[in-house]
């Protein structure tokens, strides 16, 4: 290959690789990241200090955030009447800028002695974000929590899906069955969306840690009130552990939906061999061999609620919170039992989940 052709091939390959890299995140997320980076770059230029995204310091970013970004994005009114930017929004923009700077080669923990690393990864910015959270709370900011969804609504959703899938065919039918499996798992396990999306057949175990699938499908060999363990690959805050679910054998039980799913996917020659729930491959009627993302689960979950005229601002996290509140108020479970149910390490976090006085993200 002559030098010119070699260089052209290399540049084309680099361009295609960059294009694939950008597809690793949702287009919307990528656009927001680029907007955040442009906003910082424009502000740096306006300071006439000679700073750019390639050489800005943690101090520059702290001034940018306090003097420009926080005032410009003050979209939340607190209960005491203050207008401010939510602490979560500050965390989000910090994460976004960190990723953009990493793309420019600014990686690793910030080292002030040699002015190297990612300035977003500095103790100054961490302390500032922590201080801002305290200041926002002092000004009356209350973080809104998920609108809880309770067992009655879950029951109605599952009845709706079971009836609807009976009149469907092809991938539409399979997706509805998968949705029923997702919702029953979210409710019984108290898992977050990403835990359900990544759950695999081998994660379902008996209390003696043997595989439970042979006891569930093709025929349920477990009696009601028997317990199973669901082992997520990782929770939000730790690795290892499991949640305990009790078999009921009814529509609210994930085993009912798993049996149906295994049978239906086998019949469609798209057997479940690893992940329990999978997304459709784009532009096809075939399912990808990977777990479903939390955002995809959220989109389908809320779409069903809207179709049924029952949407009230719920999210996937609503099942987790609703289940914990029911455990506390209906089943009179202790805080320690609730912690175990939801795989939560600290008592304070569990207490915040079941505090029904907290403002929610539900429709106002």
Structural overview:
It is a single chain. The chain has two domains: 113 residues, DNA polymerase, domain 1 (Orthogonal Bundle), CATH 1.10.150; 203 residues, hpI Integrase, Chain A (Orthogonal Bundle). The protein is 51% helix and 4% strand. A hairpin with a 5-residue loop joins strand 1 and strand 2. With 364 residues, it is mainly α. It starts with a helix and ends in an 11-residue tail after the last helix. The protein is globular. The strands form two sheets. The chain has a three-stranded antiparallel beta sheet.
Describe this structure in a few short sentences.
The protein has 364 residues and is mainly alpha-helical. The protein is 51% helix and 4% strand. A hairpin with a 5-residue loop joins β1 (76-77) and β2 (83-84).
Low-confidence stretches: none
Structural class: mainly alpha
> What top-tier CATH class of the largest domain fits best?
Mainly Alpha
Q: How is the CATH topology of the largest domain named?
A: hpI Integrase, Chain A
Element-by-element helix/strand order: HHHEEHHHHHEEEHHHHH
Number of domains: 2
Radius of gyration over C-alpha positions, nearest whole angstrom: 24 Å
Contiguous helical run count: 13
Name the shape in a single word. Answer: globular
Side-by-side strand order of the widest sheet: 3-4-5
CATH superfamily of the largest domain: Intergrase catalytic core
Q: Please report the total strand number as a whole number.
A: 5
Overall residue-averaged pLDDT value: 91
Our estimate of the beta-strand percent is: under 5%
Q: Helical content, roughly?
A: 40-55%
């Amino acid at each position: 290959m002559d030098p010119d052709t070699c260089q052209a091939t290399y540049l084309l390959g680099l361009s295609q690789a960059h294009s694939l890299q950008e597809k690793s995140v949702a287009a919307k997320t990528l656009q927001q990241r680029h907007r955040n980076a442009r906003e910082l770059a424009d502000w740096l230029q306006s300071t006439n200090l000679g700073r750019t995204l390639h050489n800005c310091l943690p101090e520059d970013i702290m001034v940018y955030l306090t003097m420009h970004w926080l005032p410009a994005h003050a979209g939340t009114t607190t209960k005491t009447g203050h207008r401010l930017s939510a602490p979560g929004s500050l965390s989000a923009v910090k994460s976004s800028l960190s990723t953009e700077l990493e793309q420019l080669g600014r990686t690793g923990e910030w080292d002030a002695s040699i002015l190297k690393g990612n300035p977003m990864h500095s103790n100054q910015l961490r302390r500032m974000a922590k201080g801002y959270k305290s200041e926002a709370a002092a000004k009356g900011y209350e973080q809104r929590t998920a609108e809880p969804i309770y067992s009655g609504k879950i029951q109605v959703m599952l009845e709706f899906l079971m009836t609807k899938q009976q009149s469907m065919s092809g991938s539409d039918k399979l997706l509805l069955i998968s949705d029923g499996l997702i919702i029953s798992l979210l409710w019984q396990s108290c898992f977050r969306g990403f835990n359900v999306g990544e759950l695999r057949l081998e994660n379902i175990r008996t209390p003696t840690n043997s595989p439970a699938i042979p006891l569930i499908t093709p025929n349920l060999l477990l009696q009601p009130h028997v317990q199973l363990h669901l082992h997520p690959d990782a929770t939000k805050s730790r690795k290892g552990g499991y949640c305990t679910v009790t078999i009921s054998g009814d529509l609210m039980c994930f085993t009912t939906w798993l049996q149906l799913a295994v049978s239906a996917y086998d019949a469609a020659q798209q057997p479940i061999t690893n992940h329990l729930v999978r997304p459709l491959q784009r532009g096809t009627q075939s399912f990808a061999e990977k777990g479903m993302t939390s955002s995809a689960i959220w989109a389908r979950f809320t779409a069903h609620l809207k179709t049924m005229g029952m949407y009230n601002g719920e999210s996937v996290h609503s099942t987790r919170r609703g289940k914990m509140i029911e455990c506390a108020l209906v089943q009179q479970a202790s805080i320690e039992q609730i912690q175990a149910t939801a795989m939560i390490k600290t008592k304070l976090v569990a207490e915040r989940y079941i505090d029904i006085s907290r403002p929610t993200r539900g429709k106002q």
